[in-house]
Amino acid sequence: QLSGKWFLVGMASRCSYLAEHSHQLEATTVTMTVLDGQSLAISTFRKLDRMCWEIRQHYLPAQAPGHFLLKGEGDCSKVDVVVGEADPSSFIILYYQKGRSISVKLYGRSSLVSDTIVDKFEQRARAVGLSEDVTYYFPTYGFCESADEFHILDGEL
């Protein structure tokens, strides 16, 4: 159900980097592929210094349905990913938790989603203590379709 192309519409996070660079947000797309019926292969396409990059990650299935684990280097850098709400034809809201820090992301099947979906996203963000002042929306134009072989970052560690 989650397979296919998604557009990053919004993100709520207390990440200081995001706050400092919010004026530089780039249009971002994600392609999700369900592997072995459980884990997800994620390819994120975005611009960095006006070049298109692809960032590849692998979300491993966790104990409960809709729960995934994104492993980084060492035990401290694991990120729990939880599907908060989804309508596979139009949107998905994902929670990312690393330690005590939580972020909420809204993805849409198109770069523009309805006000109803935006309201759901903002309610879910507020429910975990993330207010409008730490909610950011991404550009709806200037997407990357691909990246050349020299601009692929592989998250497999």
TrEMBL record:
Name by which UniProt lists this protein: CO8G protein
Domain Lipocalin/cytosolic fatty-acid binding: 3-137
Keyword Cytoplasm belongs to the record: no
Pfam families membership: Lipocalin
Subcellular location: Secreted
GO cellular component, one term: blood microparticle
UniProt keywords, alphabetically: Disulfide bond, Secreted, Signal
Record-linked PANTHER family: COMPLEMENT COMPONENT C8 GAMMA CHAIN (PTHR47304:SF1)
Superkingdom of source: Eukaryota
InterPro entries: A1-microglobln, C8G, Calycin, Lipocln_cytosolic_FA-bd_dom
GO biological process: complement activation
Gene3D superfamilies: 2.40.128.20
Predominant localisation class: secreted
